[in-house]
Amino acid sequence: AKEKIGVLVMAYGTPASLDDVEAYYTHIRRGNPPTPERLQELVDRYQAIGGLSPLLEITRAQVDNLEKRLNEKSPHEFVAYMGMKHAAPFIEDAIKRMAEDGIKQAIGIVLAPHYSMMSVGTYHKTAKEAAETYGIELLSLVKDYHLDPDFIQALVNRVEEVLQRFPGKAKEQVKVLFTAHSLPEKILEMKDPYPQQLRETAEVIAQRVGLKHWETGWQSAGQTAVPWLGPDILERMVSLQKEGVKQVLICPIGFVSDHLEVLYDIDIECQKLAKELEIHLERTASLNADPLYIECLSNVILQELAKT
Ligand code: FEC
Asked: What's the longest Cα–Cα distance across the chain?
């Protein structure tokens, strides 16, 4: 029989019920429980998007489709496991299950296209430690795929699609903000590739679509004592209005799925501000289980394996 290769597919994770929000938030805060007020704010945000985030189901669909596509394309036999950073099933749980299933070798990928030591880097650290604990040989961990041709094509399609919703010559009039999750400013001193990679993805899409006005932007910064990369999209919306901008498109290229940071931070919070500022704001649809995104993931994994 062919030796099975485990595929560790890692994503952020979301609470399974509103009762789990406290444990989830505590995990994100590295074991420090939030104050009751901060917890309530987060519960309110989940309630505002309908009670829970669809992230778990979407991640599950991405993992299942990726496994299927890998097995169609390659003579190896792949078994994919979903492992979350902050919620069950955790990355550690996925590795443990691999070991129980008799898997000896695995490759890992994060469902986030841009590399930062503070994002993808911490998934990798957890994966390496768990692999060590359970005796799984990690063949490789994919670092980034922010310029993968299928990834770019999927985003180009979405930008083209949503531009139709603006009147007139949208490519010439609309200001496009390509956004990603903010991170603490100290990543700049650490020469982290994250801001540059974000810029590269944005630049290629803008060129392909022929956009006149675009820039990158930061969203969803955490509330901690340290400064985060800015300006935040909320601040930027205010300054754009002062500059006379009336139409804005947000393309959240740092995220691949519908979840709180998209459904609340853009669709509710930023949209409310846009209404007040009388700006016409649209957002590109998330990739979710788009076959082009699955194609990107499968190609990146096979290319990575070919190097080992
Ligand atoms: O839909 C859902 O339930 C999950 C939404 C969600 C995604 C997500 C992605 C990223 N985060 C990243 C970094 C940080 C850092 C902190 C931080 C805090 C939070 C909190 C919530 C939350 N994040 Fe998140 N993130 C999501 C949700 N994130 C909730 C806590 C409340 C708040 O601050 O808003 C700050 C930790 C600290 O306090 O020290 C740092 C990065 C990503 C994108 C890459 C990835 O997906 O891994 C980076 C989705």
From this structure: 66
pLDDT at 224: 86
Q: Which of 22, 58, 23, 57 is nearest to 42 (CA)?
A: 22
What's the CA gap between 301 and 308, in Å, rounded? 11
Is 86 part of any known ligand binding site? no
Asked whether 35 lines ligand 1 (CB < 6 A), one says no
In the block, residue with structure tokens 């209404």 = 275
Q: CA 292 to CA 194: how far, in whole Å?
A: 23
Q: Above 0.90 for ipTM, yes or no? A: yes
Is the torsion defined by CA of 233, 186, 21, 293 positive or negative? positive
181 marked ligand binding residue: yes
Token reading at 195: 């801001």
Closest CA to 306 of 193, 147, 142: 142
Residues 6+ apart with CB under 8 A from 155: 201, 205, 251, 253, 284, 287
CB neighbours of residue 110 within 10 Å: 28
The response to whether 46 counts as a known ligand-binding position is yes
Alpha-carbon gap, residue 107 to 98, rounded angstroms: 11
Per-residue pLDDT reduced to its tens digit, 224-235: 889 999 999 999
* List of residues 6+ apart from 4 with CB closer than 8 A: 77, 78, 79, 101, 102, 103
Task: Give the pLDDT confidence of 153-209 residue by residue, as tens digits.
Answer: 999 999 999 999 999 888 899 999 999 999 999 999 999 999 999 999 999 999 999
Distance 117 CA to ligand 1 centre (A): 14
Contacts of 58 (CB under 8 A, 6+ apart): 257, 258, 259, 286, 288, 289
| pLDDT for the residue 186 | 96
- Output the pTM of the full model: 0.96
Q: Where are the beta strands (DSSP E) in the chain?
A: 4-11, 77-84, 105-110, 137-141, 175-181, 213-219, 247-251, 280-283
Q: Is 14 in the pocket of ligand 1 (CB under 6 A)?
A: yes
